[in-house]
Amino acid sequence: MGTTDDWRRLCALLDDDELLPPAVEAALGEPDGDAWETLLDGLDDAGALAYLDAEDTGMELSDALVQLPRVFRLQPDLDEVTDTDDLAEAIAAADRVLAEHGHRLLRLEEPGTDAHALVVVPSDAVPEVLVLARSLEVPVTTAL
Questions:
Q1: Alpha helices in the chain (DSSP H)
Q2: What are the tens digits of pLDDT across the range 65-108?
Q3: Opening angle at CA 135, ends 5 and 111, nearest 5
Q4: pTM, rounded to two decimals
Q5: By three-state DSSP, how is residue 103 classified?
Q6: Distance (Å, whole) CA 88 – CA 58
Q7: What distance in Å separates the CA atoms of residue 117 and residue 113, rounded to the nearest whole number?
């Protein structure tokens, strides 16, 4: 299920929080440690995740996205995202808008919940993130 280096690289691609890799590495060393849960918690603590429920709307997605540091720095026009009450349509619209700014929206599935945990990454990082996710057997998908 991947190496410590693979986990370290995945952490770096998903966010630049310096506390994330050591926390995930510590989880890997614990008998009952869960590196994926630790990664999700670390991303959440760093403010890099947008959590949405299935019944949320484009307006709620837009509000969550602008809180993310990478989106805040980009300042994209998310009006298209707010134009729908369907979350799947809103996620697709947000991904298109972010792609225009060289970024993409990825969904990180969290076991035991149907919430959408979304992270924004540079577009050129997406292929490597997906390869690492498969190698590590963790559920990461593109928004589209």
A1: 4-14, 20-29, 35-45, 58-65, 69-74, 79-82, 87-99, 126-136
A2: 999 999 999 999 999 999 889 999 999 999 999 999 999 999 99
A3: 100
A4: 0.91
A5: strand
A6: 9
A7: 10
Q: How far is CA 55 from CA 28, 94, 106, in A?
A: 34, 17, 19
Buried b or exposed e, range 99-112, using 16+ CB within 10 angstroms: bebebbbbbbbbee
Residues 6+ apart with CB under 8 A from 11: 20, 21, 24, 39, 42
Q: Whose structure tokens read 């509000």?
A: 63
Dihedral sign for Cα atoms in the order 109, 11, 118, 52: positive
With tokens 């989106």, the residue in question is 71
Q: Cβ of 114: how many Cβ atoms within 10 Å?
A: 8
Helix (H, G, I), strand (E, B) or coil at 122: strand
Answer yes or no: are the C-beta atoms of 115 and 96 closer than 8 Å.
no
